[in-house]
Amino acid sequence: MRPAAVHVELLDWESARAIAAPIRFKVFVEEQKVPEEAEIDERDPHCVHALARGDDGRALGTGRLLPDGHIGRMAVLREARQLGVGSALLTALMDEARRRGHAQAMLSAQTHAIPFYRRHGYAVVGGEYLDCGIPHVDMACDLLAEPRGPR
């Protein structure tokens, strides 16, 4: 699968849930064995949700921006990985964080994804820890600096 372009829309949880929740379930619960009860949480209704679609309209990935500027729940379907979907999602969420006046974006990155986030201007800001049994690190990005990464 190679979409010609990735289109990202920003939605509230009510509008995004029917599409975003199954993507997150497939990636986090089925693939990564995150407990189902830990996946959808009380923060979702308060977040801006990004949905990435290919030119054919098929949903490929999702992520969310919390009110405090944290980005999370970045999930891309296996067949759409390495196609720029994650970059499109992250860029849209960072742009929205800037628009909302955040000077910095924070996220909790699975350690295997550190190089991806570094390409977008993030730096590790703490030690490694386990979240749902998966190694993570906290990362931060100065949103006032010149944007980096694929645009």
First and last CA, distance: 21 Å
Structural class: alpha+beta
Number of DSSP helical runs? 4
> What is the chain-wise order of helices and strands?
EHHEEEHEHEEE
Structure description:
This protein has 151 residues and is an alpha+beta fold. The protein is built from 4 helices and 8 strands. It has helices spanning 13-31, 36-39, 85-99, 114-119; strands at residues 6-11, 48-54, 59-65, 70-76, 104-110, 123-124, 129-131, 134-142. Strands 1, 2, 3, 4, 5, 6, 7 and 8 form an 8-stranded mixed sheet that branches. Strand 3 and strand 4 form a beta hairpin. The protein is globular, with a radius of gyration of 14 Å. The two termini are 21 Å apart. The mean pLDDT is 92.
Provide the descriptors you would attach to this structure in a database record.
29% helix, 32% strand, 151 residues, 8-stranded mixed beta sheet, alpha+beta, 4 helices
